[in-house]
Amino acid sequence: MQKLYAEPPPSSAPVSMSSAGGSASGGVGVGGGAVPTSINNANPTSNGGSMSPLARSAYTMNSMGLTVGGMSSVSPQAAATFGSSVLDSAAAVASMSGSMGAAAAMNSMGGNCMTPSSMSYASMGSPLGNMGGCMAMSAASMSAAGLGGSYGSMPPGTRDMEPGSPNSLGRRGVDKPTTYRRSYTHAKPPYSYISLITMAIQNNPTRMLTLSEIYQFIMDLFPFYRQNQQRWQNSIRHSLSFNDCFVKIPRTPDKPGKGSFWTLHPDSGNMFENGCYLRRQKRFKDEKKEAIRQLHKSPSHSSLEATSPGKKDHEDSHHMHHHHHTSRLEHHQHHKEAGGGGGVALAGVNVLSAAHSKDAEALAMLHANAELCLGQQPQHVPTHHHHQHHQLQQEELSAMMANRCHPSLISDYHSSMHPLKQEPSGYTPSSHPFSINRLLPTESKADIKMYDMSQYAGYNALSPLTNSHAALGQDSYYQSLGYHAPAGTTSL
DNA sequence: GATTGTTTAGGTGATC
DNA sequence: GATCACCTAAACAATC
Predict the structure, then answer these.
(1) Where does this protein have compositionally biased stretches of type Polar residues (predicted)?
(2) A340/C13 CA-to-C1' distance in Å
């Protein structure tokens, strides 16, 4: 089984983190063995002026988790924003008889990667309420253990400690509960940068974000990232450029500004589905780009690379340096193929050569589509290479059309229809506690729409995610890119 | 000049 | 031990 976290500390020492962040060497986060632990930050209103409305919603929602079934404690805004995510969460918690039940339920999860500490963080800092009952359970359990409490119970000014400060993560105390609370706040989230970027993009109705918007999203959600911005933002940029799953979309003339938009590769939707959200099971590779790489793996290329160690694929090539490996020369060739230049080099060669090399008109249409498709039914007919997958997608499509339910729910449908697809751990792709499907609010758009239309329409204007209700026609958007919409992102 | 994007390099931990 | 996924730093170019 994939080891995702260090074991949680004994209950007597609930916080056991290696220093999250601040380490000069790598491996701080997901892969580094840092164990971001419980964050008690449930009070959105007392986090100072730096917290965006988005974050407030997130925190509000989290507070709901702490109150165990307290739908009344969640703001209408948060409820409207996160729709059924919140409702599901509330329902899940409410269905339990207090924190004991919550704790028991959590224990029943089997502890795949769900240490109380890891779960807790996500429940606290993330707006991704679709963590649902799991997160709420965690919080409830924490409360039962006397560790919970609200973020708001912390004295002002103690929540945004510098990592190096005495109360910060680097010196998390184990002597006083109050110290825990301070420390939790800035624990590094257990998510990889790729996860964070994915969250940000998927959380946006247009599925396109500028770099600065991605930054902002992350900082809004995770106070940890309000510090050392240069460090992690560099990593974000690196991740965007390096990973095939992120595709750059040039701005249109009617949208002047700095930097391009970033979106997810349409086929990258399953990166986290079957695995823990904390770490991808497998790096996404654009098949077409991979094909290009293979194409460029001609003997001449190989020899060229063999004589140019500095130009090998990067993140993995250095392992070859270390371990004298030779099997993955091709891995990052796309960097070269994407062009050495700055802005013109499209990471998503194929995706955006459609939008880029064809003409600006297609590009404009691309952008326009993303804005115009509010509430559209999916129109695309998936065209996938693999027959089985194609069939599955058609099943999904049919089910969606019939039931108007979200693809993520269809995933559950598939799990029941195709039990073999189920994870050995017992988690279905979409039910994994750290599955991105559960994390992101995209799966609840229909519910969101229904919910706030009927209940909280008046709050819509206040919600930073208001337009997420649009669930803008991703289908048209991806079609304009020459792709079919990825499973799990199809609009309703 | 600041921001954005690309690329290279070196590192860690987890998994196979 | 090999491989993989990820993190961090830095240099550099392009763009606003």
Answers:
(1) 37-50
(2) 9
